[in-house]
Design brief:
315 residues, alpha/beta, Rossmann fold, seven-stranded parallel sheet, two-stranded parallel ribbon, 11 helices, 13 strands, 46% helix, globular
Length: 315
């Protein structure tokens, strides 16, 4: 298939593009800056807020992956809704047969946060022009570079003791990024998945505090957690921005969502895409391994640059 991937340079998109190519698909990697793109697939310029650019990149595509959102913008709900509507219309006009969207877990009967409610709205808007949408709903995705995972890791590594709000007792069902990518790739080949939403998660249902304690144990650290009921989301997000590299706005959006339990309620995806997702500890080890590899690669590039500069200086 000829497939467009939005958010191709992002946390999930950067892993999805090579996986789709390996599966035999022709991949168009959509980015606002194709000259800077170095990943898999053919780089094409596009912006989900620019209908004209979408008309160009979607032409001739059989399917499209929608992996973009605007958590770092205070008006993310309005922006994401507008972008989804624009993309839906462009996909319909281009004759795209399927949109695959990575959304968020959460029970519709719950009082969902603005972030999770926005994810549900995007599902609806993507299908508003008639193109069948396959939605995979995930909770925390564990892998190097993922915002929620990096927040967890940095809290553990920067704070041997921490005061935390009540959301540390909320249950979630984390999933490894490699397993998310596998679901995204394989669901494209399943006709029965068109027009349906599926919950995806790993085998472990954990409270946030247990996730942090497991990371600490794997890294050989000691961590003390003291829950404080009166620590508000606003204070939590500012505190988070001080001890991690997550900005205040993104932190606020994530923390608001942490009051909602995000676990798999319907595992019907397992019958259509049968495999065993890795457990949380294994996913953590993979993420830490990816980070170590990235740091070695960065150090290697820096050393190579210094050697090159040194040779020039000696000439």
């Amino acid at each position: 298939m000829r497939v467009l991937v939005t958010g191709a340079s992002g946390f999930v998109g950067g892993r999805l593009c090579p996986a789709l190519e390996e599966a035999g698909h022709e991949v168009l990697a959509m980015t606002r800056h194709p000259g800077r793109y170095t990943g898999a697939g053919k780089a094409v310029r596009g912006d989900v807020h620019d209908a004209a650019s979408l008309d160009t990149v979607l032409a001739g595509c059989d399917a499209a992956y929608y992996l973009v959102h605007s958590l770092d913008d205070a008006a993310f709900r309005r922006r994401d809704a507008a972008a989804a509507r624009t993309f839906a219309r462009a996909a319909a006009e281009a004759g795209v047969k399927r949109i695959v969207y990575l959304g968020g877990l959460g029970d519709d009967t719950d009082d969902l946060s603005a972030h999770l409610r926005s994810r549900r709205e995007v599902e609806q808007f993507l299908g508003s022009a008639g193109v069948p949408v396959t939605t995979l709903r995930a909770g925390i995705v564990v892998g190097h570079g993922g915002i929620s995972w990096e927040m967890t890791r940095q809290l553990v590594e920067h704070l041997p003791a921490m005061i935390t709000p009540r959301w540390v007792r909320t249950r979630t069902q984390p999933i490894a990024v490699a397993d998310v990518v596998r679901y995204l790739v394989e669901v494209l080949e399943v006709p029965e998945a068109a027009g349906r939403a599926f919950d995806i998660g790993g085998p472990d249902v954990l409270e946030y505090v247990e996730m942090m304690r497991r990371v600490a144990a794997i890294e050989g650290r000691t961590m003390i957690v003291v829950p404080v009921p009166l620590l508000t989301p606003r204070l939590s997000s500012r505190w988070l921005s001080l001890v991690t590299d997550v900005d205040v706005q993104t932190g606020r959006s994530l923390i608001d969502s942490m009051s909602n339990e995000v676990v798999v309620r319907d595992d019907s995806i397992r019958a259509l895409v049968p495999f065993e997702p890795m457990d949380y500890d294994t996913a953590v080890l993979h993420a830490l391994g990816e980070r170590a590899q990235a740091k070695r690669a960065k150090a290697g590039h820096a050393n190579a640059g210094q050697d090159k500069a040194g040779r020039k200086a000696r000439r």
